Amino acid sequence: NAHEVRSVWTSDEGSMAKQTAEIRWAKIIQGTVDDMGETAAMENIDDQKRAESIAIQIALKNIKKEIQKDNALTPLQDDGKPDVQEWNNLLAVIGECSWVNCPWLFGECYMYRRIQGILTSSKHWQNYDVFKRQKDSTFVKSRAAVEELANRYMQTVAETGLVQNESKEEAKKLRFIEMTEVSLWGNATDLSLLANLTLEDLQKLQGRDAIQKSQRNIVDNDTDDVWAYLQRTAGQHSRQIDIVLDNAGFELFTDVLYAAYLLDAGISTSVRLHTKESPWFVSDVIPSDIESLFKHLDSSDCFPSRESLDQLIPRLRKFFQSGAITTTSDPFWTTPFSFHEMPSKAPALLKELQNSYLVIFKGDLNYRKLTRDGLWPHTTTFEEALGPLGKQSGIKTLALRTNKSDVCVGVPTQREVDALNEEAPDGAWVQNGKYAVVSFNEGQ
Ligand code: F6P
Ligand code: MG
Q1: Bridge pairing between strands 218-221 and 325-329
Q2: C-alpha of residue 405 to centroid of ligand 1, in Å
Q3: Residue 444's CB: how many other CB atoms inside 10 A?
Q4: Is any ligand 1 atom within 6 A of the Cβ of residue 16?
Q5: Total domain count, the chain
Q6: Range of the domain at 169
Q7: d(Cα 425, Cα 428) in Å, to the nearest integer?
Q8: What is the pLDDT of residues 344-370, one digit of tens each?
Q9: ipTM of the complex in this document
Q10: Are 39 and 139 contained in the same domain?
Q11: CB of 363 sitting under 6 A from ligand 1
Q12: In angstroms, rounded to a whole number, what is the distance separating the alpha carbons of residues 420 and 123?
């Protein structure tokens, strides 16, 4: 029962939560300090701005010290944003807690909100994205996979005329599986985990072969159910699909490609991409990352093999220009609330999602929020773990997520859980990003 299952804390032994709080957070903050330093050292930065960057770097380093000393989490200071009180109320409800002894979901969101607070209360750095440099440089390293996927997509379009003319049912379904998995495994490379990955590792995670091999690692796979739902409802007049995005760069490329496919194949009539309003969990998409994606794709320095890209890019752009693909941000995505709180905290957003034909949630953080970061038994149904967004919610939810935290539900049987524990012991299959879920719930 939902209320008995606790959420993971950063003090839980053996958890990804603890490891993240003890090791990764300090590195992430140091990354922001280094980034500020590098930008401030650039020639075209004026003196006042440079001087202010020193103060910002000190404030950032102070967060790092707080984490390393495991200080108590303190209320946010007023930085002029309307959400401060809400954060502090929630902190008060949690009660006394510290960085390495707090609910993981809250603590991690709080860290990104603190970074944001420092920048937004500055004079010269209000809209500065401390993670942009990292996002850009990693995207460029995904060259091989980007070019491969572009080739593959344009080849498909050439072979089948328009994808939507494909007549054979089985071929259509296989295409759906393939494109869904491209978007799924696009999530394998988020930057908050990248600290530990080499370029070679990165390239191994991407590309078609890697994707095919990974299929058996999908521990809850509802692709057939999604497909059945889409077939059953294909006659509906308006079929807007919402994609709640996760990471910029390579994953965003796979998601835009997926959106294009959903439109080309006639599965959806429009696609709405949800971005974050401000920098979040290092690599999450903010509005400016969309334009940045196209800027990179257009550049033959980044992507020298042009043939397919030169055909694909105008095709993708057209979807944005015609309004077939739109983008939107909601402040709820950058709150510390899990999605179980959506009915009370973001009722208008909830209504929009209820009106959607299908809502696709990308990535680990969205999954943690869908399931309240709860330590559910792994055989708990996805529907149950969704709480108020599950049964009778009216939301058609599809989670595409590689497993990078402590929560994972929907594994069909305990036998399968046992087998996974044997194959990848000590929770590795829930944590190491090599396993994944394609979990669907119709909200009926
Ligand atoms: O621990 C890794 C981590 O920072 C998690 O806290 C978080 O859930 C995840 O990375 C972010 O992954 P994603 O970009 O898939 O949401
Ligand atoms: Mg992310």
Answers
A1: unpaired
A2: 7
A3: 10
A4: yes
A5: 2
A6: 133-441
A7: 6
A8: 999 999 999 999 999 999 999 999 999
A9: 0.95
A10: no
A11: yes
A12: 51
